UniProtKB/TrEMBL annotation:
Gene3D superfamilies: Cullin, PONY binding domain, EF-hand. InterPro entries: DCN-prot, DCN1-like_PONY, PONY_dom. It comes from Aldrovandia affinis. Its main location: membrane. Pfam families: Cullin_binding. GO terms for molecular function: cullin family protein binding; ubiquitin conjugating enzyme binding; ubiquitin-like protein binding. Keywords: Cell membrane, Cytoplasm, Lipoprotein, Membrane, Myristate, Nucleus. One of its GO terms (biological process) is positive regulation of protein neddylation. This is DCN1-like protein. Residues 1-51, 286-312 are annotated as: Disordered. GO terms for cellular component: nucleus; perinuclear region of cytoplasm; plasma membrane; ubiquitin ligase complex. The keyword Lipoprotein applies. It is found in: Cell membrane; Cytoplasm, Perinuclear region; Nucleus. The keyword Cytoplasm applies.
Amino acid sequence: MGQCVTKCKNPSSSLGSKSGDKDPGSKSHHKKGGGGCKEEPGPVCGGKASGDLLANGTKTMEATAETPVIPATSPNPRKEELMANGEEFSLLRIEELFSCYKDEQDDAILEEGMEQFCNDLCVDPAEFRVLLLAWKFQAATMCKFTRKEFVDGCKAIKADSLEGIYSSFPCMLLEAQAEDKFKDLYRFTFQFGLDSEEGQRSLHRDIAIALWRLVFTQGSPDILDCWLDFLTENPSGVKGISRDTWNMFLNFSQVIGPDLSNYSEDEAWPSLFDTFVEWEVERRKKEEEKRRCAQPETEESGGGSSSSSSFV
């Protein structure tokens, strides 16, 4: 999901589509697969986000969303399992919803179906909410939901319709702010970014950069921008990010202060972090020297600027 979160020849494209965004207001064209589903207007996007500072100094986004408006449909005589065993969803409706987007040849929702699914949900395939949905569905691969992932995921969030899935996003956003849940989401994101079919064991550097920006949507660590600048300039020549480096960066961002003064090479950090700290400290020294050189000499002597202005 970016180019399907980014399977990514273009890491800035979408999680649900390699071809990028589509106009959320465009008309749906569902495939006529095994489910024979009726077209329904997608949820109406809406909501505001406000920022508050957490105790650790990162910014958290409090997102609210308007309830999507979907016209009521006529009763389905086959919904006999609805509310069975105390469940608040219909397994049959989940299966029918899956059939609206599944590939004609494969028993899974693939890139084209994923793009349409996101379009009908009125979400940008590259946004954080789509990553959250993939996390709740425990999707193994970008741009793909297997039948089991889709059905089990909808059951987990107790939704059997586009409206139900859309309405669950605010709860997902709040859930991801909990420390233990975010850690699980963070580690999931690494695995999700790998191409399992090719047996990848590390993330391509550009994909890792895109996923770091995405997963920290609700609370960006102070050091994140410097870290991503380092990876973008790539002085160390790194081509891929290992699982250990990915996982340890979360600890690094929580433990090491923004001035990097408490970083120690004697601790068990990945060697790439040593290179980053050296690079960042040197970069800051150069910036400080430039600022000093740019200061007028009169400011250093004090009061010089005021005396010169008296001659004007």
